[in-house]
């Protein structure tokens, strides 16, 4: 039976702040940056009114904020932070440190273009540039998904002792307002038990973190990180299952939309999924067989789940709101690796569609489906007009 909730009109960023509040973090080091700042502001309101019992730290930079996150987590505290774009890039050194130290920090990143030139538009390049740091990465389509995933992220991170980055896009989600079902504190408490790490900095039980290792021990630490990543799939599925039982809302590692009897599948992440669904409904009404595969979990990348979902699909079109210079769309390249060696390898087209926050309309999506359904794919991602 689903638990009662409160319906509120919230922006995506304020939904994230509610998710953080309900998760009961002990320490919140955070630094403002557009368009993440409303998360910090709302959390500050919660603390000032006595609705959030947490140590709120506002250090001099994002680099220092992540340093504080790591230190707090190693003492056994549950930690939350948030950032965006250049702030995330400034943290890069310490993202590796956080993962290597097995700190289950939850960070919400608001996807924004990176400089130069200067811009404030939705683009996933900031977080995807951190894909090799050892952080779990999840991508959200809507404010409702963002509040729920913030809570789910703690369950995942603390189960495998790895930091987790949850992402939604600037303005399309961060500042868009919609009715949100905010779960009760009692419901979240029943889903998310207090953080109780096996290892922490404790004068009564002497341990150390971050010391210099010999090659073999460092090699083993990388293998341990990989073992933890491999556990994420099952833990995420179990957490999603329990969240559905609690709230009635269902999230998968990947999610299919109108995948029955389809000949063409669009694969993408984040807010573009909503626009793709509108286009698919219109194309289905016109007799065009199209479906969507939404990727929620990007790290670890769900290779097997994607292979199973796309088996026997003749044509796949990936749509990227990101750009890796010299490579193309990051999701496109990951899909190529995932689909390699399949018995009936589908035609895969990679489209650079929403880069720099360009608006992607249902009309454009319908044009691309018509243009690429029977075309021969090329190795590189294609810039769309």
Summarize the structure in words.
- By secondary structure, the chain is α/β, with parallel strands linked by helices.
- It folds into 2 domains: 5-247, Rossmann fold (3-Layer(aba) Sandwich), CATH 3.40.50.970; 254-383, Rossmann fold.
- It has 13 helices and 15 strands.
- The chain has helices spanning 12-22, 37-48, 62-74, 85-90, 92-100, 125-128, 143-160, 185-191, 215-247, 272-285, 303-309, 330-339, 362-372; strands at 5-11, 27-29, 55-57, 80-84, 106-111, 136-139, 164-169, 177-183, 254-257, 264-268, 290-295, 297-299, 315-320, 347-352, 382-383.
- The strands form 4 sheets. It has a 6-stranded mixed sheet with strand order 9-11-10-13-14-15, sandwiched between helices.
- The longest helix is centred in the middle third of the chain and has 33 residues, at 215-247.
What does this entry show, briefly?
By secondary structure, the protein is of the alpha/beta class. The chain is 40% helix and 19% strand. It has helices spanning 12-22, 37-48, 62-74, 85-90, 92-100, 125-128, 143-160, 185-191, 215-247, 272-285, 303-309, 330-339, 362-372, and strands spanning 5-11, 27-29, 55-57, 80-84, 106-111, 136-139, 164-169, 177-183, 254-257, 264-268, 290-295, 297-299, 315-320, 347-352, 382-383.
């Amino acid at each position: 039976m689903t638990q009662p909730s409160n319906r509120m009109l919230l922006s995506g960023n304020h939904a994230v702040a509610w998710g953080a509040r309900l998760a009961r973090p002990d320490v919140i080091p955070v630094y403002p940056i557009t368009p993440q700042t409303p998360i910090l502001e709302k959390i500050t309101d919660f603390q000032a009114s006595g609705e959030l019992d947490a140590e709120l730290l506002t250090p001099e930079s994002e680099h220092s904020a992540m340093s504080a996150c790591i230190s707090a987590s190693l003492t056994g505290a549950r930690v939350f932070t948030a950032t965006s774009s250049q702030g995330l890039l400034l943290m890069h050194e310490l993202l590796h440190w956080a993962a290597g130290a097995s700190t289950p920090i939850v960070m919400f990143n608001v996807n924004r273009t990176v400089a130069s030139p200067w811009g404030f538009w939705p683009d996933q390049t900031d977080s995807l540039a951190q894909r090799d740091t050892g952080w779990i990465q999840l991508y959200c389509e809507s404010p409702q998904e963002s509040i729920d995933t913030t809570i789910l992220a703690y369950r995942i991170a603390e189960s495998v002792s790895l930091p987790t980055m949850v992402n939604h896009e600037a303005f399309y989600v961060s500042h868009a307002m919609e009715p949100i079902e905010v779960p009760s504190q009692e419901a979240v408490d029943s889903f998310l038990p207090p953080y109780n790490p096996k290892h922490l900095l404790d004068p009564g039980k002497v341990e150390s973190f971050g010391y210099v290792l010999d090659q073999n021990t460092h090699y083993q630490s990388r293998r341990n990180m990989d073992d933890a990543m491999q556990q994420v799939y099952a833990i995420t599925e179990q957490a999603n299952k329990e969240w559905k039982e609690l709230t009635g809302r269902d999230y998968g590692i990947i999610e299919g939309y109108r995948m029955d009897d389809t000949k063409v599948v669009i694969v993408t992440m984040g807010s573009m999924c909503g626009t793709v669904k509108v286009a698919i409904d219109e194309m289905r009404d016109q007799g065009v067989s199209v479906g969507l595969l939404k990727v929620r979990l990007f790290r670890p990348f769900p290779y097997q789940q994607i292979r199973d979902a796309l088996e026997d699909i003749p044509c796949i079109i990936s749509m990227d709101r990101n750009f890796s210079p010299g490579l193309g769309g990051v999701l496109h390249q990951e899909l190529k690796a995932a689909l390699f060696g399949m018995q009936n390898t589908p035609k895969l087209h990679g489209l650079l569609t929403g880069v720099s926050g360009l608006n992607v309309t249902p009309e454009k999506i319908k044009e691309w489906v018509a243009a690429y359904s029977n075309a021969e794919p090329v190795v590189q991602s294609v810039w769309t007009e």
